[in-house]
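Aim 2 progress update. The chain analyzed this quarter is reproduced below.
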Amino acid sequence: MMKREVAKRLFAFELNRSNHKISQNGEKTPIYVLTPTGEKCNRVFIVGVLLDKEEIRPDSNFWRMRVSDPTGVFVCTAGRYQPEALEVVLEIEPPEMVAIVGKVNVFEGESGTYISIRPEAVSIVESEARDYWVYETAQRTVERIERMETERDSEDIALAWQVYNPDLNEYRQKVREALIVIKEEFETFKVREEEKKEEVKEEKDADLELDELEFEEEEWDLSDILGE
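Predicted structure tokens:
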């Protein structure tokens, strides 16, 4: 039995620019996609807002979804070969925050190369899950950027430079933008909750422990990633 590939964390900005496939010899060997920061992936884990969904052809039971993160939009497709994921997709009404694990597919069309995700599992999540995913994905992206700069002799990294010749500062900027989004959303949420506390401060059971929601320094320290 083949070992299932680890699902990698990638922002939409990077995944949508990944168009180089790597295949290995042998039957039923996985096909990988090489990303501009040197990640070789077969499966991904994403969290974002399901913007919309549409049936590609009437009565085909084959659906296309668009899921956004702070850097762009993922395109996902689900059909009868992914029954569990499809069942959830049919029940969800956009907009909704979702987490998806799925395989990456690259299609070469007449007008260019397209990349999509074929969901294996879909679930509705809270916004806190999206924020933590952004934080973790930012960390993983920065680590790959640093390896691109220091490990140029590595096979995957050397190939990424050859295929994409990426502007690493562009990817750093996208990481920064993604973290700023969740930081601003959290601060807005905190202000609203403080206002609610003021309105109900005389009711004993109305106290909201915001400490549990704060970005703890050791877990949510964004300074290194943001360069502050």
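Residues 1-202 form a domain with the OB fold (Dihydrolipoamide Acetyltransferase, E2P) fold (CATH 2.40.50.140). The mean pLDDT is 84. These observations will guide the mutagenesis experiments scheduled for the next reporting period.
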